[in-house]
Amino acid sequence: MSEALTGPVFRGRRRGLMLVLSSPSGAGKTTLSKRLIALNPDLVLSVSATTRPPRPGEVDGEDYYFMSEDAFLAKVDEGGFYEWAKVFDHYYGTPKTPVEEALEDGRDVVFDIDWQGARALAEHSPDDVVRIFILPPSLTLLRERLTKRGQDTDEIVEGRMARARSEIAHWDEYDYVILNDDFSRALEKLSEILHAERLRRVRHPWLEGFVEALTGEGPDRYDN
Ligand SMILES: Nc1ncnc2c1ncn2[C@@H]1O[C@H](COP(=O)(O)OP(=O)(O)OP(=O)(O)O)[C@@H](O)[C@H]1O
Ligand SMILES: Nc1nc2c(ncn2[C@@H]2O[C@H](COP(=O)(O)O)[C@@H](O)[C@H]2O)c(=O)[nH]1
């Protein structure tokens, strides 16, 4: 894996956060992130690039940027990805420009990426990244979800089940773990994490000036 990451991003008085969701394939992170964004339209979804073929119904530029392997590797060479990795025999990467623009604009960004991507983002932007791991209730239900999704061949489902244990092995690298048994409860927990993380002191650099003014050490008035 190779990546070209910038350091922590400061946006005036508000630090955006990078909400990273990972899970074994089929545990529900895509569905959860889309519903979270529907409830919080100010969030931005990081649309990844991939060399895997589109599934039925997937739209280029909305679900993924679908690319040839040559085009993907050329973008790697240009330093166009925040991070990239090989997952299930295909390349996946986070395009850098849209994420940087959103963060600079003070917007929070949601990532649906694997443990390699989560680790890369956390290493380079430790103050900005919030990592959440989604667990399925059981491997039997995980297989059922992958099968019922009805978008992959039996061979692909088996390949993803074979990788499930190794993906789950990274669960303890994450800040939060959500058991996605009942979907509504899992979504509620995800929303609670987002709202609490948005309140963290480190994301509000304006507080320093405010407290200075409050205690008489700065200008009389500080507008947030
Ligand atoms: N709590 C839940 N109960 C039952 N079904 C669920 C639940 N959460 C998600 N699903 C269903 O499970 C399937 C897999 O979900 P989803 O595509 O979101 O998984 P994913 O983790 O993003 O997988 P991938 O890594 O392959 O993209 C979908 O059909 C989704 O509707
Ligand atoms: N490291 C990255 N992993 C990514 C990225 N985009 C998606 N993914 C992960 O790949 C698998 C498979 O996804 P699928 O859509 O083919 O089911 C899944 O774990 C995704 O989270 C990325 O940009 N970087």
Whole-Å distance between the termini? 40 Å
User: How are the strands of the biggest sheet laid out side by side?
Assistant: 2-7-1-8-9
Bound molecules: adenosine-5'-triphosphate, ligand LQESDW3C
The total of helices stands at 8
The sequence of SSEs as H and E is EHEEEHEEHEHEHHEHH
CATH class of the domain at 18-46 and 107-215: Alpha Beta
Taken from the alpha-carbon principal axes, the silhouette is globular
Computed CA radius of gyration, to the nearest angstrom = 19 Å
How many strands? 9
- List the uncertain runs: 1-11
Which fold name is given in CATH as the topology of the domain at 18-46 and 107-215? Rossmann fold
Oligomer: single chain
Strand count, sense and barrel status of the largest sheet are: 5 strands, parallel
Mean pLDDT: 90
Helix content: 40-55%
User: CATH superfamily assignment of the domain at 18-46 and 107-215?
Assistant: P-loop containing nucleotide triphosphate hydrolases
Helix/strand-derived category reads: alpha/beta
- Which architecture name of the domain at 18-46 and 107-215 does CATH use? 3-Layer(aba) Sandwich
